[in-house]
Each structure stands twice: as C-alpha cells, then as structure tokens.
Predict the structure of Membrane peptidoglycan carboxypeptidase.
Amino acid sequence: MTRAEMRRAAQTANRRSSRTTTERHGPGVRPAASSRRGTSGERRLIDYPRADRRGLGRWLPSWKQVLTVLMLLVGGTFGAVGFAYATVSVPSVNPSTQLQNNVFYWSDGSQMASVGQVNRQNVSLSQVPSDVQWDFLAAENASFYTDPGVDPQGILRALYHMAEGGQVQSGSTITQQFVKNTYLSQDQTLSRKFKEIMISLKIGAKLSKQQILQGYLNSNYYGRGAYGIEAAAQAYYHLPVERLNVSQGAFLAATVNEPSVMMNADDPQARPQATARWKYVLNRMAAIGKLSPTQEQRYLRAGFPVPKPMSRSGSMSGQVGYLVQIAEQYVEQHSSISDQQLNQGGYQIHTTFDRHQVSELSASVARMRGQHLDPRHRPADRNVQVGAASVDPATGAIVALYGGDGWNKGHYSDNANSSGVPVGSTFKPFDLAAALDHGAVLSPGQPPSPITPESRFDGDNGIEIKNQQGQYLPDGSDPTGLLHQQNDVSTKWGYITLRKAMEQSVNTPYVQLGEYVGYDTVENEALAAGLLRSSLQYDTAGFYIGTSTPSAIRMADAYGTFAADGVHHEPYSVTEVLDGGRQLPGFTPPAGTRAMPASTADTVTDVLRDVVEHGTGTNASALGRPAAGKTGTTDDYKSAWFIGYTPQLSTAVTMFKEGSGNSGLRSMSGVGGYSKVFGADMPTQVWLGYMSAALQGRPVTSFPPAPPLGQGANENGAPSATPSASPAESPSSTPSPTTPAPSPSPSVTPCSDIPGGCTSPTAPTPSPSPTGPGLTGGLLGPGGGKQGNGGGPSPHR
C-alpha cells in the first residue's frame, strides 16, 4: 500500500470514531478523559482554566473549586491567628505609663501641688463612683463585661480607615485601648493594630474585667496635662475622683477621644462642641439603661458641667516649694518610704499648711520689704533674708511658713527651716524656765535656791561671772584674764529683777543666772520645750543669751510649749499619706508630753507678756489681744528675731543678711535705713501683720494667770529695793517699725542684744545651713561659732 493510501485510510477511521462519540454523548461534548488531560494527555491537578470550557466559561471556577478556596482561606486565617496568638507574648509594661506624681493637699483638702514627671495618680476602681464608670463604658464599650476583649466590627472599621490612610476610628474596646496605652507604642500601623488585638485577647483571659477597667481609667490622657482619672478630676473640677457626679463623669469620658476640644470647655467659644460630646455620653447612658429618661432630663436641665479654669496647682513657685520640701522630709522621717520610692510618685500627701495663713504670712513679709527695703538703690538692703514659721501650740501643727523669695526666683534654701542663725536673747525664756523648775546654786556647796521672776541679779555692765563653785569664768579670748560680761551700754542697772531684765533685754543677769542653774539643766529645759540638741551651742557663757541656732520652726514650736501650759507637741506637717487609696501608718498627730509644770509655763508667759506690754516688744502690742513674746538681736546686728504667741498661735520671725559664697552672715547695719537693726523693728512688723490677719475673726483668748511665787532668792543677798538708776520703761523708747530708728541714747539700752556690748570683740557668726529639716529626727547641724569672749550674742528688741 502506498503512502497516500495509508493517509486516506487513517482519515476514514477518525471520521467513523467521531460519529460514534457524537451518537453516544451528543454534539459538543468530549470524552471525560480529555477534561483531565493536557495536550500531552497527562492528568491536571487543578483544572483551571477549565479545559472543557470555551470562552467566558473557561474562566469561571466550579462550585467545588470555590468551596475549596474558601475552606483554604478560612483554615489558613485561623491557622495564622492561632500561630500569632501562640507566639505573641504580653510585653512588659511601658515604664512611662507607670510614672506618677505626688499630690500635696492644703489642710482644707484642696490641692496644693502636683509634683512629678507625669501628672498621674493611680486610683483603685473602688474609688471611682459606679455611675462614673458607666459613663466611660457607655461612651466607649457598652459590651465590655461580655465581650472577649475585641470588637470585630470595630477592628474591620479601623483597618479600613487605616488602609485608606485615615485615622484610627473609635471602635477599639476598652481592653484594646488599655493595651495600647499600657503595653504598646502609639504608632498608627497595621502591624501595631494586629499586635494590639492579639495582646488584648490574652489580657482578656489573664486579667479580670475590673483590673482592665481600672488600668484603662488610670492610663488615659484627658487633656490639661492630666493622665488618669484622678488627675483629670483635679484638673477640670478641683475634686478627688470619689466626689465626681454622673454629669462630670460624662464630661471626662468625652475628653478621652477629643481632649483638645474638651480641655478648653471653660471657654464659651469652645462650649458648643464640648456640650454636644457631653450630651452624647448622657444619651448613651440612657440608651443602655444606666440612666432613666427622668434622670437624663434632670442632668440636661441642670446644664453643662462647666470645668474650672486651668489652675497652677502644680507650680512650685512662691512658698509652695518650701512647703512641699518640708512635707517630703516629714514623710521620709515617719515612714518606711525611701527617697527613691517617693520620687517614683503615686502618693497623696495631706498637710497641715493653711492656704490662707501661708498667703497672709507671705503678704506681711512683702509689705515689710516694700516699706523698708530698696536693694536697687540701697546696697545695705541686698541679700537680706526673712524666715518665719507659725505653729498651733495645742497640736504642734505647722500652719504657715515663709522660706524665702521662692524656688521660681532661685532661692532654694528654706529660711524657716535652716540652721545657722543665732537666736539671741529669744533664748532667755529657757534660762528662766530652767531656774523656775530647778532653782539656782547661789552659794557654793549649797542646794539650789528657788528662783522667781522677782529674784534680783546684778544688771550692771562688765560684771564678772561666777560658776556654781564660786569661781570666776575666764575670758575665752584671753586665758589669763576673766570674763567681763557686757551689756549694750554702761548704764548702772544695779540689782534688778529677772522680769525687768527680760523686759529690757539686759544680758548680765541671765548669763549669771544660767551659770548658777547649770549648762545641763538649761539645755534639758530647752530640749524638753522642743529644741534639737544639734542646734544648741553651749561651749561658752554666751549659750544663755543665744549662741544657739535653732530654726524658726523649732523656735515657734518651743514657744508654743509655753502657750500650751507646758505641754510640748512635736512640730508636724503631714496628717495623712495615701498610696493608691490605702492609708499608710505613721502619720497620727504626735501626742503632747509634759515638758514643764504648768506653773512654770504660765509664769514665763506672764513675764513675756510684760515684754510686749512694757519692754522691747511693745510694737507687738498693737495686735490688740493678749500676746507674749521676746525680741532678739545678735552680734553686730547679724540677725534679728521676734517670737510671739497667743493661746491659739505661736509665730517666729527671723531676719538676717547673707554674705557672698560661704562667708557667713553679714551685719545688717544700715538695712532699711536703720543704723541698728533690732528684732523690735522689721521682724516684729512681719509678725504683727501676719498675726493680725491670721487671728481675724477668732475669739480673743486670755492666758491662764501666773501662780503667786513670792520674791524668790536673790543673788548675794541683793537689796530688795529697785535701784533709782533704772531706766524708764516707756513704750516710746522702742523705735517704730515703720521709721528708721535713730541711734538710741544710753537710757534706752540701744545695743542690749549685741554680745559683748557695742564695742567688744565679736566672734564669727555661722551662716545659715539649708540642709537641716528642723523637724523630729532632723539633721540640723550646730552651725554656730564660738564666742571668743564668752559673751555670746546679746538679746535686744
């Protein structure tokens, strides 16, 4: 057979086969085997595009193919999510979210200062009213208590908007927002959102709903620099979170999403938008059944809860820096809280400081400065410092301080709480109290003799001083010579009573009295009254007339012991410390202790009342109510004091001039236009202005009467008659606090507070030390120098 015949035979066979197939399956249908094979005849794993279709049908998948793909997608998604859930771990808490501040409160409960890197105070959920909690749940996540921690619809909505390049929408659950705030960055990315979802699912299974809601409320930013709901309550309504109502809570819930709008809601121009957000939250509360329609309408009729204007409660300007410093020191001294723990924040510290009285004390200092000091035009007025403290004698509570110009003006040392400023003759009341309690050894080898304010001692200038053994004291600057104690002038006082010597600040009677009583006895009396051992300087006879350097706080407190009938209360500045709502132990007000018999305290008070009524402190008598006090001025006018008290309040004011660097105190001669600066002048003016305002409206209270004590023993059988040379006691002998004092005549004892007299050699005077807290367990250093002639600083007006 030829090749052409063979081709014809094959074509004939094919045509027959095609006809047979058509007859069996119908036209246009190929055998099934062809659907599973390619052109090479091999079987295909996935028949797509479909080989047995033509045109559009070739690209349409079969229902089996669609179902298979869907099953693969769902399975893959669940597998990927499961893998991610298993591999994603809950990261460590972002340290910045744990930063808190310490909040300090005035004695009336209002906020004094917020101190820390972040304005946040974490609170427990139990401190947040239930209705306020639901404000947030209604606005953000009503299904919070039933959902697993994520909201699929919210997630899809957020992913859609992020894919479009828009902002993340409010669809995240409270759990997700808590996770974002606490564990993650604030980046708006798909990867961060996916991680947020995974961690939220784990957190939802790990923490209780209450823990999550508490963390959410404490971690949100609410505007006005407030992180957490406690800081927000203070920032907008000046209230603790416990006192928020539903309407105020609705406002705070609205700030979470739009803090930039809500933070200025006290501005009428921003009010409409803020009001709309507030109404939305109340509407949501009603919609989920947490407010009845009647309640909702009542809140709407009451009107928008306008927030308080933004305050500067966190500022450390003015006196607040010193008050916070005192309170922090007290907290550390009376608890197990370390300095490091305190710096980490989270404490609510309630203080004894009275906002009104602190303001009045600061204003009184400002008035005195404005009237007398002109540092721009009078060089002598430069670097003049004032310190003051006011204490409640009945409790020891420190109600007011003046520490200086303020931290905001670069003055960081607290003048009210620093050591280094000698107190001068304001120390003399402790000499008298010790003598009243223990008597004095007037004759060697004899028992102590009873002493009263009417006991007489030699008040002449330049007398030699004897000890209990009858030996004359040597001169510290000249071992070969004897100490000749100086007064201010050479007036022949003769033998005068201790009362008169206190009134006129005559030195010699009290130096001699102190020697007869004894160093240890006088020291113990001062310690019992409230001074610290570290501040007492008793290496010379000058100890008895004020070489010691207690702080103004301690002096006010010690004089308060006299005001409280001899009962001493340790000065304290903190009444309560809370840590996350938990009250810490150790801050119960100190109990009073008997420092001296009531008869002793009342007798000292009676003598100090004479100082105000007839002596160097007559400027204080303008208070117009019973008051007792003592002036003090030290060597070369380097410090001037006035300490006075009523039954309700004891206040100490000190004034001194700092030298450059560490050169110590400088003379205040010429300050304020006064040739000689006495405690009776500018310090008394500060005291009078403050006490008048602080006691305004309070009842006038009298001191207990002094008990009758008789004449008491006299030194060396001194005559009972008062020397005729006694100077006049006219109040006019004291310079007015409002006019510069001229150099007084000898008859008015012009330098009675100056150690060693006006012309005697002077000793170095210590500079104030800002390091000592001046409170119980404080670190006040001795701070005082030795008097070369043993004379010590001398008291005056």
Remarks:
- The domain at 120-302 is CATH 1.10.3810.10 (Penicillin binding protein transpeptidase fold).
- The radius of gyration is 43 Å.
